[in-house]
Design a protein that fits this description.
Layout (H helix, E strand, L loop, with lengths): L4 E7 L2 E6 L1 E2 L4 H6 L2 E7 L9 E7 L18 E2 L7 E6 L6 E7 L4 E7 L3 E3 L1
Parallel strand pairs: 2-10
Antiparallel strand pairs: 1-2, 3-4, 4-7, 5-6, 5-8, 8-9
Length: 121
């Protein structure tokens, strides 16, 4: 994670810190291209949760996408993921939000975190 970012913290409803410009050949760069990536480990999942989806809104539909898509199509299910690690390509920190949608099968809770406090090198 230190190759991607420094001092990432949750501050209120936002995420602050510095995202480094990452251009070293890796799974991330080879798929998404060079740029800024936010890496997070998802913790504090409620015991009753049957679904946890995370991602960015808007999404840009994959590598090379230039049109923002304002729906939850970019969210991914992580409830069965063993390490609960996430790396997300930041296309536009000033309009994108990091979103977590947790469900227990009866109701869901949506949390959105502002990315505009991030510094992108």
């Amino acid at each position: 994670m230190s190759d991607l970012q420094d001092d990432i913290t949750f501050v209120g409803n936002g995420i602050a810190g510095t995202l480094k410009h990452y251009d070293t050949s890796s799974q991330l760069v080879d798929y998404w291209g060079e740029g800024n990536f936010l890496a997070l480990k998802i913790t504090n999942i409620p015991a009753a949760a049957t679904s946890v989806k995370v991602g960015l809104v808007p999404t840009y539909g994959g590598p090379g996408g230039t049109t923002p898509i304002y729906d939850d199509s970019g969210l991914v299910e992580i409830i069965e993921d063993e390490d609960k690690n996430l790396a997300a390509f930041i296309s536009n920190k000033d309009i994108q939000k990091f979103v977590v949608v947790t469900s227990d099968g009866n109701s869901s809770v949506r949390k959105e975190y502002d990315l505009s406090p991030l510094v992108c090198e």
